């Protein structure tokens, strides 16, 4: 598997302030660790990070992480171990890289793609119900598959594809129970199943009960303060500078 190049710089400043200033410049703060090396704070271009994630390998892309004054072993590469994103903008907030040996098998998460046209869908109006979207595999970093295939070509309504049927390349071990259901063809939902019906006997005898509060219930007892809701807590006021 070809390695993508991503350039990084050492970070000399830490904390939320410097990290925020980096992000404003289009730079993502992060760290790189692994293979017995000391954890190194680094920063990478947000644009370059997103570019490597758009490759076919996605999150499992092998990286040649270039850091000034840091020598990288010939049989080593980096992978993206974790990315934190902003909940609204989805911009990368921080990223963790990990050094790995290209000669040793490791565990990776690989997405599952559903392929084929199921007769249970085209002929009987069924619905494809994918239950598992990714599985862990163990293999050499150079053998990580882009995805695993779940073939639904012959499935009728009620048919399923189990993990044992996933098509994995040679040398890739799938680390999931072979009997685990990956995808199935569910029966179509009937219109009457969507209706909510209330049995008539539950309606019998019900009367409209006016909701009226006595005047005294609307008044707070003089001198009493309303109780605060449990778990609610006011944020401390900021001290003026």
Write the layout of secondary structure elements.
Layout: E1 4-10, H1 16-24, E2 27-34, E3 37-45, H2 46-53, E4 63-67, E5 76-85, E6 92-101, E7 106-115, H3 119-122, E8 127-130, E9 134-139, E10 148-151, E11 160-162, E12 173-174, E13 181-186, H4 200-203, H5 215-218
CATH fold name of the largest domain: Ribosomal Protein L25, Chain P
Distance between the termini: 56 Å
Return the CATH architecture of the largest domain: Beta Barrel
The total of helices stands at 5
The CATH class name of the largest domain reads Mainly Beta
Number of strands: 13
Strand order across the biggest sheet?
Answer: 4-1-3-2-6-5
The SS-based structural class is: mainly beta
Helical content class: 10-25%
User: What is the alpha-carbon Rg in Å?
Assistant: 28 Å
| Overall structural domain count | 2
Weakly predicted, low-confidence segments: 217-241
What is the chain-wise order of helices and strands?
Answer: EHEEHEEEEHEEEEEEHH
Strand proportion, as a percent range, falls in: 25-35%
At the fourth level of CATH, the homologous superfamily of the largest domain is Ribosomal Protein L25, Chain P
Mean pLDDT across the residues is: 82
For the biggest sheet, the summary is: 6 strands, mixed
